[in-house]
Amino acid sequence: DPALFDTTLSKEFLKLSQAFDYTPEQLANLALAAVRHSFLPAERKATLEAEMRAEITTLAARHLQRELVL
Q: What is the reported pTM?
């Protein structure tokens, strides 16, 4: 089913941004919330969130030329 399987997480975040005017901060916080509310062990959640925050910071600087307030 192409409507269901012909997508990526990036495409889905783009659709959210376009449909609901989500800001980069809102999208980043949504992704970070997914980690915090996952069933991962607490230590792994903390590590993954730190890695994601670092990557978000790098991408925002490169593509938005600004820092995101998370």
A: 0.87
DSSP string, 19-62: HH---HHHHHHHHHHHHHTSSS-HHHHHHHHHHHHHHHHHHHHH
Q: How many residues does the chain have?
A: 70
Distance CA 68, CA 60 (A): 7
Query: Is 7 in a helix, a strand, or coil?
Result: coil
pLDDT higher than threshold 70 for residue 1: no
Q: Would you tell me how many other CB atoms lie within 10 Å of the CB of residue 46?
A: 13
